């Protein structure tokens, strides 16, 4: 049996080889057009690589160890292909090998920060004071002092780096804050007005929350803010709950579905004259058990979410300089560390422990904040802190400052073109987004440790220019049209396959041409409202004009016109008898014949 199958298999292999040789001789490589493989340029990220300056070098983060550092440099500097090997230690020489120190791994922090490459997005004309990113890292919403909000999408962005939507939420008012919800379906925009606004991820307005009565003294009785809203924060677990802080000395908890009134009002009492202060920053803790607020009188308050919010759970008076606007209040992932960034006039960064909320556990001074909205954020691994720093009085350039979380020791300074105001460090992308004072948004990333985001834009490369050959191919390509694929040639039989389409069109008010529904309650949008008793009142006093015979109504004044010709007295002498047009007499058919 084996001897019978072997010749057939060999003959089949020989036949297939002969067919391949014939195809190769005729120049036929296969059927159909060969698909050209897209080859990515291995050096595509080098165009966006930052120029490393001397002041950006990583300083030592603690007591230096010259022996270990020198051995590292020597091992890197020795070339692999050198003809002369380095001096070898003698066998009888006692050389102590340095012990392993876990802190040495932290000294080499260059790989911890994705700052080797950058992507610049230019569309704002003034300082960028608000940044928000969705949890997936696909979209960015930005706000500026040029009154505009802009939506950026990394997936659909070209090398020109332009937003796909731009609009003015509140006319000529700057934007204080923008934040995406934790489910990524909507985001908040906080303009410098009394009313927060909510949009979906495509920029469609969903709600404008109510403005309170400014003539009421008790803030608990107002349905909304009565002064400028300054900050906001989403609930970390409930995507329909968020808080806002305002210059009316309140923090308000809102239900995203109810734009007519907030759920709870937290009245912040100050020791200043008048008992009011501006709450410039607010935030939820990661477990949603605490709400933090920083005020312009220098105090920082913490409230428990399960309390009645009559008085704060923890309070620190004089946490920052009095009269300065604290740029941000941020909770770390451990849940008990709070970071506050002082504004202009304070220029400090402080860490607090909620378990011993009496004095800061670490303070870093000498961080000039040029703009009040300057913030600070934790790294995704909760090991570092990054904030923006403006130029000092003695000189220097604007920079991003990276510090250790334990003691706020500066480990890296990254020079930028303009003062960074808003900073974000996305955990999923491992990319740093900074809004600058010159209106630009800089995305810092690393080709090795970052994912998607700016790498998607840089991988696309510049758009290929259209050549004459492309135009000639487009003109010479025939257009193949199948008639039955066009809508006008389709055979749509009545009652066949159209029931579901009719039901779907019936639900669409535009396709079904549904008239506008009557307005219930007070009128709005130029339409008069209707009440429950409106139709009853209209039937009580009816207009009977349509019930009157018009001929009888005119003949009622015939006698009056003859006795007192008030308006036709000019014809009384010349033409006392009225002359009317003669009615044409229709001729009969018999007379015509």
UniProtKB/TrEMBL annotation:
Annotated WD repeat ranges: 121-153, 222-264
InterPro entries named among the record's database cross-references: WD40/YVTN_repeat-like_dom_sf (IPR015943), WD40_PAC1 (IPR020472), WD40_repeat_dom_sf (IPR036322), WD40_rpt (IPR001680), WD_repeat_GAD-1 (IPR051858)
Annotated stretches, region: Disordered: 32-121, 491-532
Biased amino acid composition, Basic and acidic residues: 37-56, 504-516
UniProt superkingdom: Eukaryota
Signal peptide interval: none
Annotated transmembrane regions: none
Keywords: Repeat, WD repeat
Pfam families: WD40
Gene Ontology cellular-component terms listed: nucleus; site of double-strand break
Biased composition (Acidic residues): 96-111
Record protein name field: Transcription factor
Species of provenance: Ephemerocybe angulata
Highest classification ranks of the organism: Eukaryota, Fungi, Dikarya, Basidiomycota, Agaricomycotina
């Amino acid at each position: 049996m084996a001897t019978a199958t072997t010749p057939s298999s060999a003959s089949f292999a020989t036949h297939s080889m002969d067919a391949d040789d014939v195809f190769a001789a005729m120049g036929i490589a296969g059927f159909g057009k060969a698909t050209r493989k897209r080859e990515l340029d291995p050096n595509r990220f080098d165009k966006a690589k930052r120029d490393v300056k001397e002041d950006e070098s990583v300083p030592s983060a603690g007591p230096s160890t010259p022996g270990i550092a020198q051995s590292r440099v020597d091992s890197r500097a020795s070339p692999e292909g050198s003809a002369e090997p380095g001096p070898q230690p003698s066998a009888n020489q006692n050389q102590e090998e340095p012990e392993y120190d876990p802190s040495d791994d932290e000294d080499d922090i260059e790989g911890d920060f994705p700052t080797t490459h950058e992507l610049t997005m230019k569309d704002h004309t003034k300082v960028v004071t608000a940044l928000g990113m969705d949890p997936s890292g696909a979209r960015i919403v930005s706000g500026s002092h040029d009154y505009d909000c802009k939506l950026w999408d990394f997936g659909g962005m070209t090398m020109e780096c332009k937003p796909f939507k731009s609009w003015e939420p509140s006319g000529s008012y700057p934007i204080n804050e923008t934040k995406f919800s934790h489910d990524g379906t909507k985001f908040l925009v906080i303009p410098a007005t009394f009313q927060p606004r909510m949009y979906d991820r495509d920029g469609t307005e969903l709600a404008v929350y109510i403005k309170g009565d400014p003539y009421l003294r008790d803030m608990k009785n107002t349905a909304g803010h009565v002064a400028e809203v300054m900050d906001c924060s989403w609930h970390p677990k409930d995507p329909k709950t968020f808080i806002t802080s305002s210059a009316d000395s309140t923090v308000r908890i809102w239900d995203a579905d109810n734009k007519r009134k907030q759920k709870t009002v937290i009245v912040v009492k100050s020791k200043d004259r008048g008992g009011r202060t501006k709450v410039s920053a607010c935030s939820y803790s990661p477990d949603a058990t605490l709400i933090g607020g920083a005020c312009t009188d220098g105090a920082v308050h913490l409230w428990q979410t399960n309390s009645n919010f009559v008085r704060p759970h923890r309070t620190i008076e004089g946490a920052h300089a009095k009269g300065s606007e604290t740029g941000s209040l941020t909770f770390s992932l451990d849940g008990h560390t709070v970071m506050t960034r002082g504004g202009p006039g304070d220029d400090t960064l402080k860490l607090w422990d909620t378990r011993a909320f009496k004095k800061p556990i670490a303070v870093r001074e000498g961080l000039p904040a040029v703009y009040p909205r300057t913030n600070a954020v934790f790294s995704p691994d909760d090991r570092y802190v990054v904030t923006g720093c403006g130029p000092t009085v003695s000189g220097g350039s604007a920079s991003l400052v990276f510090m250790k979380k334990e003691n706020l020791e500066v480990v890296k300074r990254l020079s930028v073109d303009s003062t960074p105001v808003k900073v974000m460090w996305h955990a999923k992308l491992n990319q740093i987004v900074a809004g600058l004072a010159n209106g630009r948004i800089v995305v810092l990333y690393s080709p090795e440790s970052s994912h998607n985001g700016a790498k998607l834009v840089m991988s696309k490369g510049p758009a290929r220019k259209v050549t004459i050959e492309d135009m000639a191919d487009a003109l010479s390509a025939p257009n193949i049209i199948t008639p039955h694929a066009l809508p006008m040639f389709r055979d749509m039989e009545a009652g066949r396959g159209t029931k579901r389409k009719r039901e779907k069109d019936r639900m669409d008010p535009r396709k079904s041409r549904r008239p506008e529904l009557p307005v219930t309650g007070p009128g709005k949008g130029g339409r008069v409202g209707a009440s429950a008793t409106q139709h009853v009142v209209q039937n009580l006093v009816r207009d009977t004009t349509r019930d009157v015979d018009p001929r009888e109504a005119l003949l009622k004044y015939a006698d009056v016109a003859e006795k007192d010709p008030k308006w036709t007295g000019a014809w009384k002498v010349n033409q006392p008898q009225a002359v009317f047009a003669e009615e044409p007499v229709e001729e009969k058919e018999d007379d015509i014949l």
